[in-house]
Amino acid sequence: MQILLSLPGNVVNENLDGFQKVLESYSKLDFKYLDNVPVTKDHAGTTVSYFGDEEWILSAYIDRKITNKDKITFSEISSFELATELKMICFSWLYTNAGRGNSYPLKPSTIIFQHSKLLQVYKFLEKMKWASISKLSHAVLFYEFCTYLTSLQYSYGNTVQIFSMLNKVQRADHILPIGLVIPTDQSTKALAIECCAVEKTKPNQFYAMPTSIMEKIYSRAIDYIEKLYPYRVLLSELIRELRINYEVGKKVVDRKINDGSWKWLTPNSADYRVEVNKAKPQSYSSIIELYLQGTPLEKHILPWRQFESWLSKIQAACYIVCAAFTGMRRSELYSLHPDSFKTRTYNGKIIHTVQSYHHKMTQGRGQLSEWVTTTIVGDAISLAEALTQYMREQLFNHPDPMKNHEASCLWLTQTKKSEAPKIIYEGHFRNKFNEIAKEAGAIVDDEALEEFYLINPNQNSVLSNKKIALGYIWPITSHQFRRTFAVFVRRHNLCSTIAVKEQFKHLDIPTSEWYEEGGAAAVLRGINTDSELSELIKNVRNEVITETVFKWYNRKDKLFGKRGLEIMKDRGSIPTEHKSWQEIHNHVKAGRIDFVGTLHSYCLAGYQCQMSKVASPANCFKCENQLIDEEQAKGWSIRHQQCIQQIKYLKSIDSFSSSIESHYLSQIKAAERVMHFFNIPFSEYKQDGGNDD
Fold this sequence. Notes:
Layout: H1 11-27, H2 31-35, E1 38-41, E2 47-50, E3 55-57, E4 71-73, H3 80-95, H4 108-127, H5 139-151, H6 156-171, H7 188-195, H8 211-228, H9 232-258, H10 272-279, H11 284-292, H12 304-324, H13 330-333, E5 341-346, E6 349-358, E7 367-373, H14 375-387, H15 389-396, H16 401-406, E8 412-413, E9 422-423, H17 426-440, H18 446-455, H19 461-467, H20 479-491, H21 497-504, H22 509-516, H23 519-527, H24 531-554, H25 562-570, H26 581-589, E10 596-597, E11 602-603, E12 626-627, H27 630-652, H28 658-677
Antiparallel strand pairs: 1-2, 3-4, 5-6, 6-7, 8-9, 10-11, 11-12
């Protein structure tokens, strides 16, 4: 059988025969055969996990830059019957469509997550000494489970997920012979509200930082980057020398072990590390002093452990800057690489971006995307790259291909010298975040607390009161940078909600608005105190819209798009009084005429449009509300060039696929239609690669 992870849906049918044999063995209680069924393999195709194992290793299917969880464990369930049933469910998720809630195969990280939630149910079953999850089909026993879940005082979100797993098992009755029928008509959300902790019923949205806290933390992180960026090569060479010094000592000890001189020692002995340390040509402190003595970094000549901690803090500062000035998700930040920072010219303006992969609602490797940012992020990436250069070289030369894949990651550590470098996860970063917050003096005061409640309207006060307290350091988590970015840019009107949607790679406008929650409230608090300012802003907006629409109806300028062509057609038939500036202004003030810019066109549906297709502008050609004027057409010309350049780049790194080609080709052809209509010179794109420019 072929594992279903990240593979096309047609693999499901190919797997059915093999899965049927497993199912028959399970039904016949043929556990000898069942235990020897291969479940997962490594990158070379060698089986690493069998059905009977207490641990299923998924490392060959997991991108460690996205998650640090790479296994499913069953050891917490001691009952053989329950553990086997749980394995059958997880096996069906791997090889059939049993766990799918949509048309996409399950991601390995999703399967690991679903197992962790279903495990809570099986812990209850074992506690009650019941042999199958089907026991919950009885109304009385299901009530006992709900009572048990209530006693755990889980949050609403966690409780919903547990009930959702029961629903998945119930819906898999066409595949699995378990026969679970949930004895209630209540929805998972209704059940979760009844069973979760009362004070945890309200979701606790990730926090946006108050302005004073944000400024202190970001300033401190930027200060690290600006001061150390000029010395990144020096630090890189120092880190390399420290590692080589260790490797020389290790070779000396390994040679004595291998030639039999030291029969009393093995690489697994407790004294192995001590002997390697003795065999090093130089002490760590002497190397640090040699490199930093007489430089502006002289004050950082510290004992090895303190110096190592200081380097980790620099990495954390680089991470903060990258997250703070892009709004990227954690998985996207971990997909940054040394060549991520790009500088482009758009409409005569210099635009800085970072290139990475986003994995939300994508299958397989992820989708290559770009995020608008600022130059300090480029410096942060360069500094992080220098600090991990030798670690990445070690991973690149490692015999394990999975380690080779991690070699592009910027966020690495090697605290255990005898092991290959590892990716830094948030738990380690969080300690450094707190150190930076403490250094920055990011202490919660009355003003910060008041602003916290204003810009975080969806926080659960019962939970937030335990984390955000007067006189204490602000507790940083990585997702706060994303929320803070959205709230800040909308609060200060630095970009539109549509621009946030583009930056955050959201599927629709409501999701972006959810991230911005609190930004509008902060703006309104200031504007409401000045009614004249509020009225001025409203009047200016109405006049801008009126002036633009007046120009469309009264000039002979070309317009494209379905709505644009309609306006051009109707110009001669509309009475003059209805095309007057005042008449149009009256319609605008009454809300009957409105439009928004979509970066590539105008949408005359106003903010009623959810902009779900704005990420691929070509899709808007089917919309009756699209309008493109000559100024927007210039933007299409630039988009045409960028798409062709992007295709060439993807081909050069062997990352070009048919789906990516389809995405860019639709935009290129749409741009060519626009340029042809407006008589803008262009070279037609040829799919066979015959383009010269």
